[in-house]
Amino acid sequence: MPLFGKKDKAGNLCFNLAVADGIPTFVAGDSIRVTFFDQEKKIEFKSRVFKNKEPIYVRYSQLICWNTLTEKEIIEKQKSVLGRAAIGGLFLGSLGSIIGG
Questions:
Q1: Averaged pLDDT in 10-residue chunks for the chain of 101 residues
Q2: Which of 46, 50, 59, 54 is nearest to 15 (CA)?
Q3: Cβ atoms of residues 101 and 85 within 8 Å
Q4: What is the distance between the alpha carbons of residues 91 and 41, in angstroms, rounded to a whole number?
Q5: For residues 32 and 35, what is the distance between their CA atoms, to the nearest angstrom?
Q6: What gap in Å lies between CA 81 and CA 97, rounded to an integer?
Q7: In angstroms, rounded to a whole number, what is the distance separating the alpha carbons of residues 15 and 35?
Q8: N or C: where does the chain have the smaller number of CB atoms within 10 Å of the terminal CB?
Q9: What predicted TM-score, i.e. pTM, was given to this entire model?
Q10: 3-class DSSP string for 28-80
């Protein structure tokens, strides 16, 4: 049995998560099931609560970067972006805010 998930009846790796951010049509806190379809080379994000909600599919080829973050790291990163934007704004005005953010 895999460390962070299990396999469904078809043998695909799957696990349950709570959404933090970044998946269209899902809001923070939604309970979802993530399934990796290696044969089709895609990942499915499906709601565990709202069964009539359409799943989201992402092809492996569409992935640029994959990273696992804790909730604390997400909050710290958001603060960091705001801080960089503020400091950039102080030094270079609105252009600095955009570049700093």
A1: 66 85 82 91 91 90 77 63 53 46 44
A2: 46
A3: yes
A4: 46
A5: 10
A6: 10
A7: 7
A8: N
A9: 0.61
A10: CCCEEEEEEECCCCEEEEEECCCCCCCCEEEEHHHCCCCCCCCHHHHHHHHHH
